[in-house]
Amino acid sequence: MKVSYQWLNEYIDLSGFSAEELAEKLTRGGIEVDGVEARNKGVTGVVVGYVKKKEKHPDADKLNVCTVDAGQGEDLQIVCGARNVDAGQYVPVAMIGAKLPDGLNIKRAKLRGVESQGMICSAKELGLNDKLLPKEQQEGILVLPQDSEIGRPIVEVLGLSDEIMELDLTPNRSDCLSMLGVAYEMGALTGQQVKLPDNRVHDASEQAADHISVSISAPEHCTHYAARYIKGIKVGPSPLWMQNRLIAAGIRPINNIVDITNFVMLEYGQPLHAFDADKVSGGRIDVRLAKPGETLVTLDDQDRRLEPHMLLITDGEKPVALAGVMGGANSEVTSETVNILLESARFDGGTVRKTSRQLGLRSEASIRFEKEVDPGRVIPALDRAAALMAVYAAGLVTEGVVEAVTAGVSPVTVKVSLSKINGYLGTSLSSLEVKTIFGRLHFEYEVSGDDVFEVRVPSRRGDITRDVDLIEEVARIYGYDNIPTTPIEGASTPGSLTLPQAIRREIRKRLTNSGVHEVISYSFTAPERTGLFPALAGNVYPVRLSMPMSEDRSVLRTSLIPHLLEIAGYNRNRKNDNVAVFEMGSVFLSTEQELTRLPQEKHRLAALLTGSRTDAQWNVKTAPVDFYDVKGMLEAVFDLLGISGKITYEAAAPEHWHPGRTAAVLLDTERGSECIGYVGQLHPDLQREFDVADTYVFEIELSPLYEVADFSIVYKALPRYPAIGRDIAVVLEKQVEAGKLTVLIKETAGDLLESVEVFDVFTGEKLGANKKSVALSLVYRNAERTLTDEEVTELHGKVVTALEQSFGAELRK
Amino acid sequence: MKERLEALRSEALQELQQVADPGQLNELRVKFLGKKGALTEILRGMGSLSAEERPVIGQVGNEVRGAIEVVIEEKQLIFQRQETENRLREETIDVTLPGTKPAAGAVHPLNKVAQELEDVFIGMGYTIAEGPEVETDFFNFEALNLPKNHPARDMQDSFYVTDDILMRTHTSPVQVRTMKAMNGKTPVKVICPGKVYRRDDDDATHSFQFNQIEGLVIDKNIRMSDLKGTLLQFVQQMFGKQAQIRLRPSFFPFTEPSAEVDVTCVQCGGDGCRMCKQTGWLEILGCGMVHPRVLEMGGYDPNEVSGFAFGMGVERIALLKYGIDDIRHFYTNDLRFLSQFARM
């Protein structure tokens, strides 16, 4: 809503407040003013001139030499190139020394040899939004009405000294979609009285009911329909001051009839519609829902296919308007119109909203209906418009309002006690202070002995229905700044993270401290992305948005890895080849194709490594990352959570992963061994598709880890007896996994084996094809006493034998 | 014999003066003082001396030995010092070359800010609650006093999956879930952080996916003044002791009264600058007293208890805190952007 300062001043005395101060006052009171804009964009020295004579320029076909009376005593000679300039016009004249918004300074000049003592201006040159002007005015100079006063500053004539406040209204305050609403609000904030517009109608003896009739056949969609019949109007331009007001509010002036309906809508917030009464057959109005297959050509010349939920104004047979949204072309007011059927009605907000949405037709009228109009203003607004039509369209307003009412409006009464107000706000207001506030708001009330206020809420404030709504009004007018600042009383509570949150924070710390960056990507992805890594998505359907903004972001992700890959690609394209990133976030899985319940949201952790381990530096040789780097990251996370003992890795070859370099990650739980994710290299085909180098990733479920994570640290006594170390190197078949060797060694050696680590693995021609050497370091220790060399030798011998027997291992000597 | 000893002394001292390296020094020690050395050789002849002469010559012999040893020791020290000096000279490195740092990754700036916000509220006695990002219409709207066709739903254009299931548009449904889970018990004091989704064209200040942190307090006799007190404490912990708040009446369907909260501009401290559009204030959160309908739907009697709620956008705070000019950076994950946050 755009509010003109000067216009508002007609309903409430604003002296003492500049537009900026007014804006601040309203904003602090809860009606946010987005900005204040001066209508004058920098015009000085422009006055109304009268074109006495127009002659062709002797040396230029497209130029005219005009003789202009600008009230300066002497006529001015002005060269003008506009096609629409003509003798007998009143026009804006920028005189020598004038300044225009685009920075133009008007100087004495010669145009093709002819002296020009100024410039005749277009609307655009005056800084007006010419989109709101008729086309002929847009293309040439601005032509002013014939009754304009020669020599009068154009700033006054066009109302340019005004300032416009742009209100950003919250949905509850649709009462401020009207000048009167804003005036009441300002009155509540300043204590000033509101002056209502003059809407007295001087009725003629002729009865409106003899010309028109009204009925409502859809009572649940229209509770009140009122009409007046205005005879013998003369369609023409509306007065310039009214046009100025409309332009200031962002509405294009059309003609006096339409302008008056818009002007009154802005005043009262009640949209009005004027029909050419002679085109509404029988002067009959019936409000009903559309029938299947019905159509209506609306004012914008679109043939609209109507649906049964749309509310129509009909002449009893055919539609003449889409109720509250747009009029029909068949009943439009034109220059030939002489009789007007003027409508003022209350249409159901939801009905209008649905229709305007569906047809993509949102207008100043529909916006107001959608938020429910004030039932108390249907008739006053109708009268005001009729009164203005009598004055500015020479109309004869016939006697009486013809109306149909299907549901009365009962006044809203809300009770609130002084103690509730103070208890809720933490204030200590007196009864008198609250009375003053309600008085300023123009709320009528009665107070009982125990300070209970019974407030009759004015119909314009449909947002107030409960005690807390009144409390907010009191708080607003009292001033939020004046409410004290207190600590919460009552028992203090200990604050904490939940266990999953604490775990995620620890993981975040661990990984970032190892040089991995955390990323956050979008939950929405492209459908083809959800086809990747089926082993991670499970046998489910992706969740699809019903109206995505783009196909690329139309489904919910089923794995974190595709976006990590995009991030790697993005950074690679910016010459950042070494990428180490991780993300913790939800994936969304559903077993239903059409959702009937919420999908599963699984918290996951995924990481991606590609490029080199470190950036090259003068003393550091770079080495490419490999499988064991990404696996190490994962192991570090499990170590952190104290669950490494419950994790095993098993070679796996799920789709889109490198079949020789991927492991399933298994977690030992009470329910048995569960696969919680995968770690490995991407399949080379996929790497090619995403244009990335060798890339290593993992993705695991977090929720099972929340269950098993072990944060209890139990101290183990430091050893008091020495350990005996034995290294062993065996040659065996390549495909025998080191993990199997260590498991066997542990089983064979039993408790006396403190640790076993692989310290070297290699292959080579000397070993033979398909063979490898694995070197292990074993540490034996007895916590109770010193081990003897013989004991260890014997035990170690068993280990060697077991390796030989189980894996065909040959001891390297 | 005495003459021979004296001659040995002067010969030894003279040769020792000339010595150039530790090897030579050692050779001379063997030559003069060794078991088969010159001094031993001379003193071997002591047997032929008289009983009176013997102690005299013995003493002279000891003196000569002592004198030679002193010089050898001196020489040794000198050589040691030289050796150390040489070594230090050889080991000298260019200390201006860069060191070998362990790699450092960064917590994503949005999580960094969210953690900081969470910690402030944990310190104030709040627990942290989470809920699903895909929600039912009931939890996201209806239970928050936003029935179907309510005009205020325009404020939050939503991504629907079905007529009844949508991407949550705020973390408020977690508040409803918390209330239901509390089953009427008080006090409720929670913070609900998380991702939310609204249909918005992405630009420098808008993103269809963003993060919110909301708070909810329910207890007997909770007042709007408590809300102001809580928010002031929060902003002073987050933005410094000098930070002040300013509440402006506003509207949210789930609170009444409702307010927008401005905080003293973090850039200019309230003097007015470009960041705060010369107002000295920055809008950072919305809040209000929990609407009685919301309390009722959450299983509380609005005549028995009252509450307040507040919510803020994590992106907004991060933009302000770090002076970031474009919200899209948060989701592009350019390493040159992320790595700037790998520090305190």
Automatic annotation (TrEMBL), chain A:
Keywords: Aminoacyl-tRNA synthetase, ATP-binding, Cytoplasm, Ligase, Magnesium, Metal-binding, Nucleotide-binding, Protein biosynthesis, RNA-binding, tRNA-binding
Binding site residues for Mg(2+): D463, D469, E472, E473
Organism superkingdom: Bacteria
Domain B5 residues, every copy: 409-485
Subcellular location: Cytoplasm
A biological process from GO: phenylalanyl-tRNA aminoacylation
PROSITE patterns recorded: B5 (PS51483), FDX_ACB (PS51447), TRBD (PS50886)
Main localization of the protein described in the UniProt heading: cytoplasm
Classification via SUPFAM superfamilies: Anticodon-binding domain of PheRS (SSF54991), Class II aaRS and biotin synthetases (SSF55681), Nucleic acid-binding proteins (SSF50249), PheT/TilS domain (SSF56037), Putative DNA-binding domain (SSF46955)
Domain TRNA-binding: 40-155
One example GO MF annotation: catalytic activity, acting on a protein
Pfam families, sorted: B3_4 (PF03483), B5 (PF03484), FDX-ACB (PF03147), tRNA_bind (PF01588), tRNA_synthFbeta (PF17759)
EC number of this enzyme: 6.1.1.20
Gene3D superfamilies: 3.30.56.10, Bira Bifunctional Protein, Domain 2 (3.30.930.10), Ferrodoxin-fold anticodon-binding domain (3.30.70.380), Nucleic acid-binding proteins (2.40.50.140), Phenylalanyl-trna Synthetase, Chain B, domain 3 (3.50.40.10)
Cofactor note: Binds 2 magnesium ions per tetramer.
Catalytic activities: tRNA(Phe) + L-phenylalanine + ATP = L-phenylalanyl-tRNA(Phe) + AMP + diphosphate + H(+)
Cofactor requirements of the protein: Mg(2+)
Gene Ontology annotations for the cellular component aspect, listed alphabetically: phenylalanine-tRNA ligase complex
Residue span(s) of domain FDX-ACB: 719-812
Description of how the protein assembles with itself and partners: Tetramer of two alpha and two beta subunits.
NCBIfam families: pheT_bact, YtpR
Family stated for the protein in its record: Belongs to the phenylalanyl-tRNA synthetase beta subunit family. Type 1 subfamily.
Protein name: Phenylalanine--tRNA ligase beta subunit
Automatic annotation (TrEMBL), chain B:
EC class (word): ligase
Predominant localisation class: cytoplasm
An individual GO BP term: phenylalanyl-tRNA aminoacylation
Catalyzed reactions: tRNA(Phe) + L-phenylalanine + ATP = L-phenylalanyl-tRNA(Phe) + AMP + diphosphate + H(+)
PROSITE patterns linked to this entry: AA_TRNA_LIGASE_II
Pfam families per record: Phe_tRNA-synt_N, tRNA-synt_2d
GO CC entries: cytoplasm
Cofactor requirement: Mg(2+)
Cofactor binding: number and manner: Binds 2 magnesium ions per tetramer.
Gene3D superfamilies membership: Bira Bifunctional Protein, Domain 2 (3.30.930.10)
Annotated Mg(2+) binding sites: E256
Quaternary context: Tetramer of two alpha and two beta subunits.
Protein name: Phenylalanine--tRNA ligase alpha subunit
GN (gene name): pheS
